[in-house]
Amino acid sequence: MANYDFPQDLRYSREDEWVRTEGERVTIGVTDYAQQQLGDIVFVELPEVGRTFEKGEPFGVIESVKAVSDLFAPISGEVKEINPALAEAPESVNEDCYGEGWMIVIVPADSTEVSALLDAGAYAQHVESRTD
To answer: Which of 16, 49, 74, 99 has the maximum number of C-beta atoms within 10 A of its C-beta?
Structure first.
């Protein structure tokens, strides 16, 4: 398997988003696997603050030199913040997907959805089992 970084303190969706819980807020971005598969990120479209999303619903679009992909909400909730730096520097997703390349912050509608996501080990197995 290629060399991917999956921090132990995060939770992961099968659609390659990560989730970091910070009190009542949840920060979301794309995983190291996703950004490596996409290649050089050239554009990120994020929702407006105040929008609500159901788990699994597309919340934005990420575009690379290779492909355009939807971003899927790993949990339900209301967007409280977006990363404005991605408009000018979408490449931060490639450079630091778990830090400066974060995408949105939401307040979860149901906090139990976070615990239902994959832990780092389960996500690593999910990535390893893929053929795409």
So the answer is: 74
